[in-house]
Fold:
Amino acid sequence: MVIVDDRELVSFSTSPDRYRHWRLSVEGPVATLTMNVDADGGLRSGYELKLNSYDLGVDIELYDAVQRLRFEHPGVKTVVVTSGQDKVFCAGANIRMLAASSHPWKVNFCKFTNETRNGIEDASQNSGQTYVAALNGTASGGGYELALACDHILLVDDRSSVVSLPELPLLGVLPGTGGLTRVTDKRHVRRDRADYFATRSEGIGGKRAVAWRLVDEAVPRAAWDKRLAERTSATVAASGRLPGPAGTGGVELTPLDKTRTPDSIEYRYVSAKFHRDHGTVRIIVRGPSGEAPGSIADVHAQGAEFWTLAMTRELDDLILDLRANEPELGTWVLRTSGDAAAVLAHDELLLAHRSSDWLANEIVLYLKRTLKRLDVTSRSLIALIEPGSCFAGSLLELALAADRSYMLAGVFEEEDPGASPAEVTVSAMQFSPGNTGGPLPMGNGLTRLATRFFGDAEGLAAAGKQAGQPLEAEDAEELGLVTFAPDDIDWEEEVRIAIEERASFSPDALTGLEANYRFTGPETMETKIFGRLTAWQNWIFYRPNASGPDGALRKYGTGQRAEFDDKRV
Structure:
């Protein structure tokens, strides 16, 4: 936590030398993440983090560790996640913390937790860093959900260690950050078995856990070390981790140069100004300050200073900061500034090497995850495309992610009549063969452009034909790449009305509307987690059966039974 203008704000910045709850060790191609939660180290006061239970502070460290493994330790091919406590892996989210937290805190906590688990799965699937869960004790609730994010699960077979999702019988809530979805969609547990498992607070272990696909192996304690070593060796051998240029190592994720005041956040390439009277944040993302490096080796040499990586880290941190600390700023106005050609050159360099170089691949994957974080943020997004903007390639994704976009037709005649009109440029960042996934897919597996034109193959093809061509407002509007293209006479009024109108609506209704419209098309595990499971979990958290004075969260640990409203709705 940090103090700004007498406000206690959540900071998402940390490093291994500051961890209180995790220990990261690396031996050759194998890294070990050991969870040993400091019971007295809660992010807020009023609860103890017993039995490796966790709060947001524990998850912030985990997120940092996952990021550093991808960038600072390119030689790692297998990551073992285990516990430093005897006979317990993780008891899940701390119940006292949840019971005492506001509804928005619970929502943001669950969302961030699941985004981190998605990042673990992304590393296993796309980075050649495979995660293995070594459950040397019982894994309950969110602890088992962390294991579910890993590619392979070993459970010690000692007649007492089990895996469980006990939220429903004990707390009156749904396993909320992907548990149920991963059990059925990822591990393919039969529906009837999943129903029994999720209603059994005692959990399941041993051979039954393996037979039901809840874990991959149940290993006697005497054979534990040997079997874990065999598993990590096999995983290392099967890794598809990409190499880098000879003589290069990892890229240090140096601390961000960030200045935060009560009304602004400033980084090198990203800035945000708060307008609290209108409930808005004005965000500007700046393009590169110079030309793209001449080679991929130069990208390695620049490291965290390389524009795409630096900008993505700043945007990621900004999104997290605003979500956690500024919930009443409900509309984000997105702008860009800079040289579109420089943005496209940086993109082209990364795309040319992402299939052969680990760093190029990681930077594109990180940008993908950050844009996904923007997609699932419950804020209205309005993009303003003006002269001097650089909505091209990777930065065009910001406009495509917006709920609505305005592009100035012509220039501001009174302010700068000699300026060049605004342009947007579609590029390979929006397309792939068949234009399904592309380099930067959304949670639905489609690019934002394919999502925009879902069911309109002709419109998508027309936009594709203009790839690489800078388009002014009239052409961009005709192609459907922007929502409106007012001239300078109408610009200020149309933008003002759009922003003020947004502030007049119910924030809850807006969140529901935006979450539905943003994820057009096929349903995936991610869209289920964020669009279905998380929505239901948040609703259940708000209901008296869970959070009321006589609800299960309040009665947990008191020896008293919860009192439920028996109406099913």
Q: What stands out?
A: The chain has a mean pLDDT of 94.
